[in-house]
Specification:
The complex is a heterodimer of chains A (209) and B (277). Chain A is an alpha/beta fold and 209 residues long. Chain A has 8 helices and 6 strands; from the N terminus they run ββαβαββαβααααα. In chain A, strand 2, helix 1 and strand 3 form a beta-alpha-beta unit. In chain A, helix 4 crosses helix 7 and helix 7 packs across helix 8. Chain B is an alpha/beta fold. Chain B has 2 domains: 166 residues, Rossmann fold (3-Layer(aba) Sandwich), CATH 3.40.50.720; 87 residues, Orthogonal Bundle (N-(1-d-carboxylethyl)-l-norvaline Dehydrogenase, domain 2), CATH 1.10.1040.10. Chain B has a 5-stranded mixed beta sheet with strand order 3-4-5-6-7. Chain B is globular and about 55 Å long. Classes of the chains: A alpha/beta (209), B alpha/beta (277). At the A-B interface, strand 6, helix 4 and helix 5 of A face strand 7, helix 7 and helix 8 of B.
Amino acid sequence: MPVNVIITGRSRSFPKDVPPMPGSGTVLAGTAAADVISGAAKACLDFVAVELNNECLGDHIGLDADPIAARIVGFARFRLGTADPSNLIELVSMDWTDEDAVAAAKAAFEGGGFVVACCADRPGRIVNRLIRPYFNAVLRRLDDGLASAADMDKTLMLGLGYPEGPNALLARTGLADHHEVTAVLEGALGDNDFTPARRAQIAWQRASK
Amino acid sequence: MGVGIAIVAARAGFTVRVFDTSSEALDRAHEQTADFLKKSVARGKLSPSDRDATLARLIGSTRIADLADCEFVIEAIYENLTAKHDLFGQLDQVCPPETIFASNTSTISITEIAAGSGRADRFVGMHFCLPAQLMRLVEMSPGLNTSDETWRAAWAFCEALGQKPVATSDTPGFVLNYFLIPYHNDAIRLVEQGVASPADIDIAMKAAMGYPMGPFELLDLVGADTQKLLCDAMFGLTNEKRAACPPLIRRMIAAGHLGKKSGRGFHHYDDSKMFGA
């Protein structure tokens, strides 16, 4: 039996087709997904997976243990700015989420051809928590004159085997998007390593005009 | 890391003297080198005769005096300025004046190391990347007193090794480690905070960004002990909080969970063979 997929509004994870996923559960995607959580949870089989953007799962189901919400997990297909979505699903659970629900959701996404990484319900999950301070450092050091953008990219690609340097990647996917994500994380974490770098602030201001 | 650099030089046709104060370390280096070259032959990257010739060009020694005929010396000891000054001070007594000294340091100032070498004008930074035997990049950094002649000779030598030199300024961490050390520390802090396991973080970063290795796979290659030294050096120079050594690294060192070389780090390993072997 395939997983039931309900898309309400625009989905960053599934901008086009949704691959069939095996299992007994419901995937709620799109900007209005959270609005239908409670109904889906009551009718849920093994799990309900609700799409997250920059917010946390707790924003929708609260932080306290709830037997109805125990089978709800969050997910986000990682996507950098305007780039196509990656193959990564970050699967979010609370410490009181039913382990069988997490396992069932993981199996469903993997069955749909995705790579799944599990994480706790924290701002930025895994990837944004790691790449945003790194991108900010790159942008700040570019201002400082550490090296040219091309030399920085070349060094990181040759030295670490990255497929694309951070400067080229941010230019391709949008500095304004980097601003949007880091501003949310700075507010949620209170950590100035997430303060949008000057170049991202300028891009954001220009895009907002 | 010195073993990887030695392989690069020997593979490029240079006779290489591998110096270590420990004969056990030299034996281990020889074994790791033989394993790596064997795998290179199996993969069709190296002919059996080239493997034998490469191995024959690697000569181990525990006597620093055996480096007296070297034209170029690359130091790859741990990140400690005093230890590096001590080593280069000895080398300056042993090697002829025309020998160029290079440091594989990834964090300490080249100018500061060169100041204790007795030959600051014939001194350069040559930072190879892990695993050195596979990665082509070398960050080349001149010190304030490095002569133009030395810089050109070192650059040409780097190219003769078959590597790709990139010029970087003599600043903490140069380019690569300035970004890599804090990024690794951020990943460790995610584990400390219970956000995700090392395995899930590695999976995520590879799938999302197309990186060939996750941060913990690379950290296990670097070694927890080396990461601490890198952090201490980097934080001491920059005072940037992301460079500060996470407590988990200190606990792992105390527990002997150093990484691939000890069989256990953030992941478990069945052997201590070199990456690619």
